[in-house]
Design goal:
Radius of gyration: 15 Å
Shape: globular
Number of helices: 3
Structural class: alpha+beta
Largest sheet: 7 strands, antiparallel
Oligomer: single chain
Length: 152
């Protein structure tokens, strides 16, 4: 992400920081190039670390839908290992423009994140090894959809 884009994202989210919410969504990273970017957002209020094991909830907000992906938002409950950088999906929900398309409560297998990948960065952030990119955002989908639209 360019420095100007990062400052813009921080600026638009500062207004949301004071909103009351039981959730505390914060951007971990934005990956890809327009028009196919993805924002990875962590609900910091759900992060629970016990030793090296961490559990938390994420949203992935996609700039576009199409033949490859028929959804533009996923909400995933995850487990990870901050030492080995392994991760597991515990449950997931996929949405297209606010409509639930599918839901799965069957945990997936534990996988090792590739260094430099999006999930590697999400784990680094959730584990406290890297700073969040923003302050809390009350409505990540609307905020990041507007960011994508205004920064093509």
């Amino acid at each position: 992400m360019t420095r100007i884009a990062r400052y813009f994202l921080v600026a638009i989210t500062l207004g949301w920081a004071g909103c009351a919410s039981a959730q505390s969504w914060r951007v971990a990273s934005i990956a890809g190039q327009s028009p196919d970017r993805t924002a990875y957002v962590i609900d910091a209020s759900t992060v629970v670390l016990r030793g090296d094991i961490i559990e938390f909830r994420t949203q992935s907000i996609y700039e576009t839908m199409g033949d490859v992906r028929d959804f533009n938002l996923s909400e995933i409950r995850r487990r990870g290992n901050c030492r080995t950088m392994q991760h597991q999906i515990l449950s997931d929900n996929y949405y297209a423009n606010g409509t639930l398309l599918s839901s799965n409560d069957n945990p997936g297998q534990m996988l090792t994140a590739n260094e430099g990948s999006a999930i590697w960065g999400v784990l680094l952030t959730a584990c406290g090894k890297r700073d969040y990119a923003t302050q809390p955002i009350a409505n990540p989908f609307d905020t990041l959809t507007a960011y994508f639209r205004n920064n093509r």
